[in-house]
Known about the structure:
This protein has helices at 2-24, 28-35, and strands spanning 50-57, 60-67, 95-99, 103-105, 108-110, 113-120, 126-131, 147-153, 156-173, 176-194. Mean pLDDT is 85; it is low at 7-40. By secondary structure, it is α+β, with helices and mostly antiparallel strands. A six-stranded antiparallel sheet has the order 1-2-3-6-7-8, with no helix packed on it. A four-stranded antiparallel sheet has the order 5-4-10-9, with no helix packed on it.
Amino acid sequence: MKNIIGIFIVMLIAVGCKDNNKQTTEPEEHNHNHTVESPSPQKKKVLSPHTSAMATIDDAHIHIDYSSPGVRNRMIFGGLLAYDEVWQAGAHNATWIETNKDLVIDGNELKAGKYGFFVIPSQEQWTLIFNTRWNQHGKDEYNTDEDVLRLTVKPEPTKEITEHLTYKIEKTDPKKGKITLLWEKVKVEFPFEVK
């Protein structure tokens, strides 16, 4: 009985080796064709990546969510974006700003909450707008009746081009900070205080 089992095992090993030899003697091209995968299409470069800026000042957590378009050799303000028209302050969906604490901006109170952030750029001054309708595509549903705070600021020219729209939130004092928008050769910023 042991001899029969031993012969059976030897036969199995021999058959396995024979199959392996068969695989290795096939032409190299054949094996290569089985392992080559069709190239996957490259991901399309995102022209306006979705990004955010966040900071904690005092006990206030402030979050700005936006899509960041690029200049791409275009004239932006007064060109791609007409002066004196509402812009959603980013690409695609409206930019939104959220704070978990009340803020004081330009002497006015902005209650804790989430707001659509819109701007009206012009050569001499910009109007910055906080609107209750934060979740919308572009400015499709923008309505001035839903504005909760408007302020005007003077745009500042920059020496360097900021290729992609950028927001920054910086602490300037224990309870104070500033929000800055940079794009193309323009900088717009405004201070705030945690109430």
